[in-house]
Amino acid sequence: MSNELYQLPAYRLAEMLRNKEVSAVEISKAAFSRIEKVDGAVGAHLALSEESALETAAEVDKAIGAGEELPPCAGIPVGVKDNISTQGIKTTCASKMLEGYVPPFDAFAVKKLKEQKAVITGKLNMDEFAMGSSTENSYFKPAHNPRDLSRVPGGSSGGSAAAVAAGEVPLSLGSDTGGSIRQPAAYCGVVGLKPTYGSVSRYGLVAFASSLDQIGPLGRNVRDTAMLYSAICGHDPMDATSVKREYPDFSAGLKGDVKGLRVGVPEEYFGAGIDDGVKANVMGAIKELERAGAEIKTISLPSNEYAISAYYILSSAEASSNLARYDGVKYGYRAGEYDSLTDMYEKTRSEGFGAEVKRRIMLGTFVLSSGYYNAYYGKAKRLQQRIYREFAEAFETVDVIATPTAPTAAFKLGQKINDPLEMYMNDICTVTVNIAGLPAISLPCGMAEGLPAGLQLIGNRFSEGTLFKAALGYEEISGGFPGAAEIG
Amino acid sequence: MSNHIDINHIAKLARLRITESERESFEREMEAIVGMVDHLPDIDGDVVLDPKNVMSLREDEISGERFARDMLLANAPSVQAGCLVVPKTVE
Questions:
Q1: What is the pTM of this model?
Q2: How far apart are CA A435 and CA A386, in angstroms?
Q3: Which positions in chain A touch B31 (Cβ < 8 Å)?
Q4: Option in A312, A333, A361 nearest B37 (CB)
Q5: CA angle A19, A20, A25 (to 5 degrees)
Q6: Is B33 on the interface with A (CB under 8 A)?
Q7: Which backbone phi and psi does A306 adopt, to 5 degrees?
Q8: Contact criterion met (CB below 8 Å) for A22 and A13
Q9: Is the pLDDT higher at A181 or at B53?
């Protein structure tokens, strides 16, 4: 029974607005009502911006009344991960270090949403500074998986995935550095896209690893996800890594089709580390693609063996540099007592950062330090080139590459938190994509022991159009993706 | 390549203080993590930049948003006369 507003897809809400079947204020009120009902249990939102949301919704209703044409995302509720700057709204990165920090500016992606008069519901929970894969590293509270509240929603964009899966919002923004959109999307049974590096501006995204980070969309279906991606992609002169390029509207006239689609299946991503249930679901999905006319081809991406090591070296090195700015001087947390500048720095950083953040800063500092740089960082950079070349070669003969998104389904809260290495293994299928700067989308592909499993489709740079077409094709073949979870 | 990582030295570089109670588990975790990343193959060759992917920098001009000073200082822990207050930086 999906006739409640909070259960409807964003594209359906957009239609209803234009047909005057519902008002933007009604849609927003339904979202906040749903949030009030379930977010106590889910923990997806860290902060709500109800007042400004209803103001924006009222503006949209006024525009509809005046017969104005609406931008695609007008009046649609969207949650924003708490490492994306929102002017006047606390942006904490789920850290004590930025607990009270209020940005004086909007991120480019937020500006784009505001231009479309999307309704920003609030800020979403995450692992501290985007470091983690369970949202258990949030300083404030963990988030819970709406499909099974005793389990993690994944991370670091756990709040973004959970808010969408719980029906709190139809759309959310997350960020992905090593899998942080895709893996929680897989755990929560929703769609998540990590865009091509450089296609979404990082201006206003609190930096973790600048050469890997990307903001991206999450939704309960492919069309919604494409709609949000179209809203936020584009060149931004404020981000020197933002690529000068024109993008089409990816959701306009989007048709699903996999006939003739060449799908590469890399054997290295289906090894012993992948849970049997997940493997069966993903192989099942690939078979369905084949039955619908896709050409399946076994390929090899041998550098996957070293990808996790290269990823943790590269991302931690960049993180140690990016997080050096948190010193208690100009903004953020400052220690209460100190007797010198150095003492202030050390106390501020030791008290303000959680354990996982400290581990990554230490690892990054180590691999960049004198005497170790070539052995670790230098090697990782050369391995990055090799990974890049392997993908480039593969894309000469295939259009997309299909893998599991994560090696397991969602695990229980507390299960892996005391074993950092075990936690890092959650990323084995996702990190190569960030290392190579490629786009990849995670799609729900059935259940493994009652929990969602994720199919990852990887594309060549700027091939989001191909990915969306294939993804929608799969969505239709599979009979549709899960709706909003039943909670409580 | 030795896995041993000099925690004190690295912490000092990173301006972090590892407390005595944290030290043992921290050392263990760091050694394990470094052990994991230790196994990279020796790859020859230089890192090659992509000639098609040129980073173009904008002109060094203020364009777009301007911020009032007090807006930027609004998040500062300690401000006096429009300046940030910190412990003495020069002896």
A1: 0.97
A2: 10
A3: none
A4: A312
A5: 135
A6: yes
A7: -105, 0
A8: yes
A9: A181
Q: How far apart (Å, rounded) are the C-alpha atoms in residues A471 and A255?
A: 10
**Residue among A103, A110, A122, A105 at smallest CA distance from A47:** A122
Q: Is A81 among the catalytic positions?
A: yes
Reading the block at residue B73, the tokens are 């200082």
The ipTM (two decimal places) reads: 0.91
CA distance A347 to A360: 18
Closest CA to A225 of A488, A487, A486, A481: A481
User: Tokens at residue A376, please?
Assistant: 């670790």
Q: Which amino acid is at A69?
A: E
For range A100-118, the mean pLDDT: 97
Per-position DSSP letters for A231-296, written without gaps between them = HH-S--TT-TTS-------SSTT-----TT-EEEEEGGGGSTTS-HHHHHHHHHHHHHHHHTTPEE
Q: How many CB pairs under 8 A join A and B?
A: 143
Give A151-172 pLDDT, tens digit per residue: 999 999 999 999 999 999 999 9
- Contact in structure between A191 and A443 (CB atoms under 8 Å): yes
For A462-483, letters b (16+ CB in 10 Å) and e give bbbebbbbbbbbbbebbeebbb
pLDDT in tens, A448-461: 889 999 999 999 99
The maximal CA–CA distance of chain B, rounded, in angstroms, is 56
Residue with tokens 């949403």: A113
Task: Name the nearest CA neighbour of A85 among A169, A1, A203.
Answer: A203
pLDDT tens digits, residue range A215-231?
999 999 999 999 999 99
Buried b (16+ CB within 10 A) or exposed e, A215-239: bbbbbbbbbbbbbbbbbbbbebbbb
Characterize A59-92 residue by residue with b for buried, 16 or more Cβ atoms within 10 angstroms of its Cβ, and e for exposed: ebbebbeeeeebbbbbbbbbbbbbbbbbeebbbb
Question: Which tokens hold the place of A372?
Answer: 């170790």
CA distance A329 to A331: 6
> What DSSP character marks residue A13?
H
Beta bridge partners of A459: A400
Tokens 């052995």, located at residue: A375
Residue-by-residue DSSP string for A401-437? EEEESSSSSPPBTTSSTT-HHHHHGGGTTTHHHHHTT
Contact flag B36-A104 (C-beta cutoff 8 Å): no
pLDDT for B2? 47
Per the residue annotation, which of A23, A49, A81, A347 is the catalytic one?
Answer: A81
